[in-house]
Amino acid sequence: MELVYVQHKTEMEIQSLKREMKEFKDEMKEFKDEMKVFKDEMKEFKDEMKEFKDEMQREAKRINKQWGELANKMGTIVEDIVFPAVRPVVKKYFGCNPSVLMMNVEKRVDGINAEFDVIAVCDNAAFVVEVKSTARVEHIGQVKDKVELFKKLFPEYSNRKVVPILASLKIGEDVLNKLTKEKIYGMAYREWEYMDILNFGEF
């Protein structure tokens, strides 16, 4: 009699364990289903965020291009586009924060007169930025002339390396290649996203 009771009790425990295992499996299946739904929702969210980010980048490019065209038409490209970008560009590529940053500078010394669009001065370098609405090959000679004039008109910076930069809204590949050959940096919009030095890596 006792043996039968033990067997019956064991069978009941086994049945109870089976039910618990089945319930656990059902819960795990439900959890997996919920996780799948969550993953699907996250994927959908990521896709939406990527689409939003892409749209914002396209919009930023469009606005930058329109702003550049408007500034070009109004003749304010130096004030609106180039000048605010000089400090961050110089800090990024040359590792110095200009102590002097001037725009539309005119200077006359001993009968020599010149106008400079942007001048930035660091401890060990002076940057002469010539700005053109449309960069052309003939502007390269003008940049070189401005460098020589800068050396004559600003003798107080004679102990600094003079770095020439031609800045524009957009610089064509042919002009950029010639700038590189002449050791002149070309500064313009990169894909209409931000002002940047386009040929820094070529030096």
Characterization of the model:
57% of the residues lie in helices and 22% in strands. The protein is built from four helices and six strands; from the N terminus they run ααβββαβαββ. The protein has a six-stranded mixed beta sheet, sandwiched between helices. Strand 1 (100-109) and strand 2 form a beta hairpin.
Compact summary:
With 203 residues, the chain is an alpha/beta fold.
The whole-angstrom Rg is 34 Å
- Low-pLDDT stretches are none
Largest sheet: 6 strands, mixed
According to DSSP, the number of beta strands is 6
User: What does the average pLDDT come to?
Assistant: 87
How would you sum up the global shape?
Answer: elongated
Number of helices: 4
Distance between the termini: 98 Å
Q: Give the amount of beta strand, in percent.
A: 15-25%
Main β-sheet, spatial strand arrangement? 1-2-3-4-5-6
Q: How do the SSEs run, as a string of H and E?
A: HHEEEHEHEE
**Structural class given helices, strands, pairing?**
alpha/beta
Helix content: 55-70%
